[in-house]
Amino acid sequence: MLSSQPLLHTAVFALTVLQALASNTFIAAVYEHAVILPDAVIKPVSPDDALALMNSNMDVLEGAIKEAAQQGAHIIVTPEDGIYGWNFTRDTIYPYLEDIPDPGVNWIPCTDPTRFAPAPVQERLSCMARNNSIYVVANIGDKKPCNSSDPSCPEDGRYQYNTDVVFDPEGKLVARYHKYNLFIPETQFNYPKEPEAITFETPFGKFGIFTCFDILFHEPAVVLVSKLQVDTVLFPTAWMNVLPFLTAVEFHSAWAMGMGVNFLAANTHRTSISMTGSGIYAPDGARTYYYNMKTEDGHLLVAELDSHPRLSTAFPPAVNWSSYALSVERFSPNDSGFGGLIFHDWFSFTELAKPEGNQTICQKDLCCHLSYKMAEKREDEVYVLGAFDGLHVVEGQYYLQICTLLKCKSTDLNTCGQPVETAQTKFEMFSLSGTFGTNYVFPEVLYSGVQLAPGEFQVLSDGRLTSKTRPTKPVVTVTLFGRWYEKDHLKQDPQLPAFS
Ligand SMILES: NC(=O)CCCC[C@@H]1SC[C@@H]2NC(=O)N[C@@H]21
């Protein structure tokens, strides 16, 4: 008997396509998932036990996918490690891995599950996409056997990759991305030999994909946006928050604004290791975001985005990041500067001792200028202007240029740069700029309680990050986070002896 299912699918898919084309917008969803972790084991579990654990996570993800589809979402992103969790060695993750083919094979695992080796996870994800007529983005593990004909083949005879997959609304595998910048503890995985810049077209724009720690590096993240001109980035992540600059919602929204793209960030949720913070971000600010350190449940976000943000009237202007700062005299150069550490980097600081004023602080080639006015100068809170120009060397090496206005943890200046979540000082205005040598600068504004400030700040074409209106909440940090990719080739190769 002929099933009416394929016809129904084609009709629903066609309708979705027509709606998206007509409106030039689409509805995006991200799900912050409190992943069910496997027990920490020394010996690998059986494939059945591995699948059982992954199915319990996919049960939860399926609920979120259904709910997103019911709310009209065209695409949903789920987090890195969201299906198998973490705490693995190379051997103990093996039963969780599947051979994920190149999407060029044109495969719908839901309707053709036996075409390749058994792939129950891909089959189930494909069916979730197909049954709900929605693009599904997930993070799973790929295995690729190799042998001694390949001189780089690992001793255990296989490559293992941290992998993002995308299934279209018919359930077809349309994208596969192997994470290029593994985070330090990911010893269970191999680095792909070359970075992959993975894109795919949809009726609502061109998409690119990368994973978590990739966001701090040029390849493939910047290549996808600057060269391949994607409209929207998909970003599964397992991100531990680090204040004051690298908290998920703060940094990911800033990257979207700095790069001028939509950005769909789905984080895992585990407060004990500061993992929370997902969002749907557009170039002009967050459409919606989620940060919750109080409870352990997952959370679905849904929001509408422009399909082609570069064509939108709200698209921010091109920015010359050093123009303003190079054009002004140093504000009140003073010798009251002092130093302090922020996330292992030695910053130069100057205190904002008055309720309003203009300040400059310089480090190496970077001078940061600030004009500000506080609603009142509180006796119990201290703010500083800070500058850092150099190589960050902890948990990876990367060159940074950072200008920041931040609240110190206490009135003791020795605490400046330590993580702070709350503040009471309201500002009437701020304007921050710097003599950046890089074009890649990500503007961050964080209010008290790890809250973003969508619509309340802007970047002017001369590189000033300014308040648009009177900031509605007390300020914790205002930061221009510059990433100087061009300098990365100067890094000391960790495999070479020092001073070689
Ligand atoms: N799973 C990953 O690849 C993401 C880790 C990102 C962590 C960010 S980047 C450097 C900071 N260190 C942390 O512990 N969290 C921040």
Q: Can you put this structure into words, describing what you see?
A:
InterPro entries: Biotinidase-like_euk, Biotinidase/VNN, C-N_Hydrolase, C-N_Hydrolase_sf, Vanin_C. Pfam families: CN_hydrolase, Vanin_C. One of its GO terms (biological process) is pantothenate metabolic process. Keywords: Glycoprotein, Hydrolase, Signal. The protein is 17% helix and 31% strand. With 500 residues, the protein is an alpha+beta fold. It folds into two domains: 5-311, Nitrilase/N-carbamoyl-D-aminoacid amidohydrolase, CATH 3.60.110.10; 323-490, no CATH class. It has a six-stranded mixed β-sheet with strand order 5-4-3-2-1-12. Strand 17 (383-392) and strand 18 form a beta hairpin. Helix 2 runs parallel beside helix 4 (120-132). The longest helix is centred in the N-terminal third of the chain and has 24 residues, at 47-70. The termini are far apart.
